[in-house]
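User: Can you help me understand a structure? I only have the sequence.
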Amino acid sequence: MPAWAWLLPLVLALLIYPVHSWRDAPLFPTPLNALRELPLQAPLKDGAVIMDAGCGLGDGLRALRLAYPSADFWGIDASWPLRWLCAVRCPWARIWFADIWKASWAECDMVYLFQRPETMERAALKASQELKRGAWMVSLEFEAQGLVPTAVGKASENRPIWLYQQPFQWVHQKNKSA
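Assistant: Let's start by predicting it. Here is the structure, written out as tokens:
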């Protein structure tokens, strides 16, 4: 086998999953039925804009569509191949090639994340600056440290869903009022 052949898997991995995305989250697929109960805690009107920030292959979008069938779905991902595959799998959604930290969240009624715990503080800051009053930030499994959740649901026995509604309440605000 030629020496360059050993680099082929690395090159393919970099094409599918750019290096700057590695610090945010690996490819975390959302289980299809994980978000079915979400409307009980985070009701949205028909036509609400729901964004999956870091949509990958579209598993989160598919789960969100089961929960909110009349919403308008957006997905963004920093990988061209994953963005393309997501668009194929979710033709009813608008999918963009974008960096979740640079894209605007201002038009969204809900932003869904399945990121790493280390990125949740950054997500909370972005959401607090960009989401409109009444909009939701929803995180599967990982809590946004520093924010007081509006509600905590369950995707399954050991998989919490953290819900935060604008205006957010920060932990230090809660402690000041106590």
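Now, to help you interpret it: Residues 174-178 have pLDDT under 50 and may be disordered. The beta strands are 49-53, 72-77, 94-97, 110-113, 136-140, 147-148, 151-156, 159-165, 169-170. Let me know which part you'd like to focus on.
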